């Protein structure tokens, strides 16, 4: 008799509980510009973790991973979570620079992430691993270039996790006891020049993929913590809301923008959730294809648009929500907040729908730059979902 390993037995038990007995065999279906791996149909995700604030179950019609892009050099990895009887607009979740889709999917202390919350509320969810991340897959050429990762010490203060390395804020919401798990989940990135630990397989300089997000058009690095250098100016103090560098060129990798546009063309107009430098991607998608963007949720973003004419022509027609946590001054986030407030004011003045949620003004303290994995992440997601129901509309 053939022996069955414990992991395989667990898989079989899960599949046996599914509503459909004719689940697909999990082999990847290859298509031009896309590879899809189906996990199961009607898969029930029961919350068996320590997450006591979200105890009911979620049933998914489909959960899959697939690639968008013309080659391994440019592919973006998409993770989809499609709830059974989905009734609301899709939400595409784009992470900040050097971070992966997992910040939306689960927390380092084993709680459900925002992807779960939004899917449970009836939204099909697509989380994104950008093409510059090792988690999206690397070509042989990329694997031989320098790879980098956020430095484990500098991010404590930079992202509002604590007052210094390994010194969490007493009232902080970040799950500091699970920091090692969080840091283990940060993928290596191709060719960024940030405050990161780096490795090099080639002994040379990192190759930047088409002016990747986090790189200004002049070749100078943009600091996700709040400081843009070079021609783009100081993001923490000066307005970089146009999403352009000082010479008028976009700082965004057009390949990444093209991939998100391709996703929206395939899946339909959607709401974009953007975090930090991910804002640059989302805003550029809205500029180029506003017909595909049903709304924008901006989590402490870089590059919020502030040009009044651009607001009139494009962003006034797109519902816009900005969200900010705590410790803004120590994290150099005040400039970003001012830019988002300007965006909101201009949208509202031109007949659109815009709002800023500054959590501390609602008595919610201690949130970091990574509020989607903070201890009160469900409280924040419920506020976002409520705003979407009111401003974008509940059903499709």
TrEMBL record:
Keyword Signal: yes
Comp. bias intervals (Polar residues): 192-204
Positions of region (Disordered): 22-57, 192-252
Protein name as annotated: Alpha/beta fold hydrolase
Bias-annotated ranges (Low complexity): 38-57
Signal peptide start and end residues: 1-19
Keyword annotations: Signal
Coiled coil: none
Source organism: Pontibacillus yanchengensis
Biased composition (Basic and acidic residues): 28-37
């Amino acid at each position: 008799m053939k022996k069955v390993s414990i992991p395989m037995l667990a898989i079989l038990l899960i599949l046996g509980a599914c509503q459909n007995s004719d689940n697909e065999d999990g082999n990847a279906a290859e298509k031009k510009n896309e590879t899809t791996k189906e996990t199961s149909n009607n898969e029930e995700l029961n919350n068996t973790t320590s997450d006591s604030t979200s105890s009911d179950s979620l049933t998914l019609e489909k959960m899959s991973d697939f690639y968008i892009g013309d080659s391994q050099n440019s592919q973006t990895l998409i993770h989809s979570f499609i709830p059974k009887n989905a009734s609301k607009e899709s939400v595409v979740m784009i992470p900040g620079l050097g971070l992966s889709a997992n910040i939306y999917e689960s927390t380092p202390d084993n709680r459900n992430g925002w992807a779960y919350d939004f899917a449970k509320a009836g939204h099909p969810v697509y989380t994104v691993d950008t093409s510059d991340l090792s988690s999206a897959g690397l070509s042989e050429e990329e694997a031989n270039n320098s790879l980098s990762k956020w430095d484990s010490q500098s991010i404590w203060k930079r992202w509002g996790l604590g007052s210094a390395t390994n010194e969490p804020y007493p009232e902080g919401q970040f799950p500091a006891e699970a920091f090692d798990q969080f840091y283990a989940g940060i993928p290596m990135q191709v060719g960024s020049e940030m405050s990161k630990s780096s490795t090099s397989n080639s002994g040379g300089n990192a190759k930047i993929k088409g002016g990747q997000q986090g790189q200004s058009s002049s070749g100078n690095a943009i600091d996700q913590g709040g400081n843009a250098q070079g021609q783009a100016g100081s993001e923490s103090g000066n307005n970089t809301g146009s999403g352009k560098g000082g010479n008028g060129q976009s700082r965004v990798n057009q390949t990444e923008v093209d991939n998100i546009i391709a996703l929206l063309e395939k899946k339909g107009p959607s709401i974009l959730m953007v975090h930090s430098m991910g804002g640059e991607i989302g805003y550029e998608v809205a500029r180029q294809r506003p017909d595909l963007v049903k709304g924008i949720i901006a989590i402490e973003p870089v590059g919020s648009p502030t040009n009044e004419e651009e607001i009139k022509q494009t962003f006034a027609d797109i519902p816009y929500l900005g969200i900010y946590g705590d410790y803004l001054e120590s994290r150099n986030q005040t400039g970003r907040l001012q830019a988002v407030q300007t965006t909101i004011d201009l949208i509202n003045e031109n007949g659109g729908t815009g709002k800023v949620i500054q959590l501390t003004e609602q008595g919610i303290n201690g949130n970091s730059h990574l509020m989607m994995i903070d201890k009160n992440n469900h409280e924040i997601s419920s506020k976002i979902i409520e705003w979407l129901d009111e401003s974008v509309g509940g059903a499709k």
